[in-house]
Fold each of these.
Amino acid sequence: MARNDTQLSWKEALKRNVRAWRTIGRCQPKLFGTAVLPAVFDGLGPYVTIYLSARIIEELAGERNPGRLTFLVAVCLIASAAVLFGRGAFKRWAQVEKTCFYEGEEKIYMDKAASMEFALIDRQQTYDLYSQIMQNRQWASYGLYRDAYYLSDLLRALLQIAGGLGLSVTLFLAKVPSSSDLAFLNSPLAAAACLGLLLLIAVAAPALKNKAEGYYWVRYAEMARLGNRQFGYFFSASVDRKRYADMRMYCQNDNLLGPLWENCDSFMPGSAIAELAKGRMGLLAGLSRTLSAVLTGAVYLFVCLKAWAGAFGVGMVTQYVGAITNLFLGVSEFLELCGTLRANASFLDTTFAYLDLPNEMYQGSLTTEKRSDRQYQVEFRDVSFKYPGSETWALRHVNMTFQVGSRLAVVGQNGSGKTTFIKLLCRLYDPTEGEILLNGIDIRKYRYEDYIQIFSVVFQDFQLFALPLGENVAGRTDYDREQVWNCLKKAGFEERMSRMTKGLDTYLYKDLDKEGVEISGGEAQKIAIARALYKEAPFLILDEPTAALDPIAEAEIYGKFNEIATDKTTVYISHRLSSCKFCDEIAVFDQGAVVQEGSHEELLSDEDGKYYELWHAQAQYYTEEAVRVLLG
Ligand code: ADP
């Protein structure tokens, strides 16, 4: 397992954290506002009590004036209560904002994914980056979330230092009577030595803690991420109800998941991380705590010696001890936070690598004009395409013109390039060679958002949301109910819909509503077709639209095809040739090239052609082969 032994420079760490805060601020500006008030109350609040208690003790040790004492006690009580109230209230407010940023962070990644060109989303490296960000967040909240969380802590530590300095500065100025044996404490050297010692301990304690935690966590980040990934997969797989039937039939629980669990050893006793936690990390953390205790002892010693020698009274002892203890707690916390943020900067690297993924696709500015005549003519001119990182051509020298309002079927064996052809048509990818033209202009010159508006596609692996049926079809929450209903009817969903008691408001699946309905693959496909119809785009593309439908439902869709397609230019992809007969034109794909074009009859009359071969191979399967299988 790779170990990361390099530590980031402080400058680089600062740069990344500042960028993280800017990113957080853009997403959730309120988080900054809510971080300030709790920091003020938390950082300065304790000094109010320390200061007023010291005045009460001074009064008790001095004149003991009952009126003054009562006044001081009342002020101390009211002020302390107000501070506690403020702390509680503002902390709660800040906590809400911090928790909201958990979703806010997701939104940052979601927006990035939405603006990313499809080729990038499709790339494995992109997914790997995203899942690393999620793993970093899950195993120790590293990444943007940690910066959001530590913002008020950092402010609080700074205010705590400022407050402590304010109340303790006179400790070093107060003079011991020159007749005292301890008069040497008056010398600036003694004050500097004492302050230096305190500072040294205050710096060493958090440094040890940072070494114990941040440094080792960064070093073993990859191992921790893998462990988290394995744990995550184990838990999601073991509660995934879609797997229950398989799990039961093949005893996968014992045979696959059990060993997977046993192999999740990143955090188990005996792993490198566990050994470190027991050994060096534990030792360093223990040393850090010990130094903190030594620091408190040293403060007491210095303050008490000066008081004993007569530099100040007992009230000031309370003030100085309280203020300095708090001051060094602040210093300690500030340094610890700096160490943690430095460690976090290593994890932010992954976050920014993802957010900085460049969009290399050319973005044009022409508008597609919403033409009322829907005369959008698309032409593929000598188009060839290789997927990024692939050496083989997925499409080669494709020439094709879509006649407005025509029905084109694209057929071919699996892997022949049919889906790739559609992905290029919808500009999910740009051609490697050649060009695609819309009304004579290269599609790259159009605004991307405008261009994709002219297509409705039912992809082979379409996805629906666990949201109400109507919202799934319309793709939005405010929609034309009648129109949605008509589209569902056209797609053949009428009968199933009549069994849904809440109609268009019925939730699909049970993820978000216990009364949600489970739907079959065929029913889902009909909903996806209705969604494509609702968009009312001039191009309708159906990629294997009947693959999950039974023969009756399939026949039903064909029967309604003209009603569904109306005046749209329709592209119909299928490897089942019998379902393409009704199209005006059929394009036969083979190994990325269009090898034949024509009507069903024309293509079938060419006995040396690919279509003839495929047709007879399938006809045999559906007739002789099927009968043979059925009759045993
Ligand atoms: P069809 O739709 O006809 O089944 P595809 O267009 O999906 O075929 O695939 C054409 C070729 O491109 C196949 O060889 C396939 O393996 C390859 N291919 C498809 N998607 C990708 C991808 N994202 N990355 C690399 N190669 C791909």
Note: The longest strand covers residues 378-385.
Amino acid sequence: MKHLLSINDLSVEEIAHIFETASEMHDVQKREVKKLPVLRGRTVVNMFFEDSTRTRSSFEIAGKWLSADVINISAKGSSASKGESLRDTVLTVCAMGIDGLVIRHPASGAAHQVSQWVDAAVVNAGDGMHEHPTQALLDAYTLQRRLGSLAGRHVAIIGDLTHSRVFRSNIQCLTKLGAEVTVVAPPTLMPSGIDSWSRTAGFATSYDVDAVLPQADAVMMLRVQRERMAGGFFPSAREYTVGYGLTRDRLRLLKPDAPICHPGPMNRGLEIAADAADAAQSVVLEQVSSGLAVRMSVLYHLLAGEES
Ligand code: NCD
């Protein structure tokens, strides 16, 4: 594995291998001294052209706990705000001899494009509405720790599918691992072409949250991404919540042990009620700690090589 740009780059065996290493990395989080020497002398640059709390900080901590030197560059505060092109910014940073480049960018395909310009290992930390592979890996890892094998387990993904790279990566990852996936959204937030895509990729679609929830072994709520919406995709926030939110009433429809996931940041009261976000079966914070372990694993596999 040279880069991690898409879940499509990974075989089922490679995913299993990433998860095995992640579970070893998970143990590091429990230690008093959280450092492994495996990436000593390597340099990782986190280049974020979009806002981020958990993805950026977990890549930063992951690199540091593996003893890499990590620096962060964001669009605000870099020469990108002076009009420098993405290519020039990336080539400038890579001319310093870095080993890994973690990139988040609002343009779909940006990470793939960057990987063609540089020698460094590139990790896609979210490219527009396209993919977010480490999020899908951490989601599947979290669910597997809770449910065991995902083969034949039913996962419902509910929310703003159109604008969601988390959904696009998760569909690939969950179906690869044998899960049965049903995606639910209002018609205006269902991606165009979903009928033929769902037939080829082997997942189901629905507009009816109340019918899907009782069947689900796990539910993944997605954020309503208002920053990517040019016009009105639903009449009002209230109507969205009534139709598609995981409300207190809907919580009762879920199996009592079905994990509730959300990649964050959550719009509490819009797609997810506080009662659901804070329910005993919510794994939202577990996703964050698993995310760190999975990102340590990904950086290790990309930068340390199998021989280390
Ligand atoms: C997601 C993202 O940025 O794509 N969040 C994340 O990485 N934790 C989902 C979102 O922004 O809604």
Note: The chain has a mean pLDDT of 95.
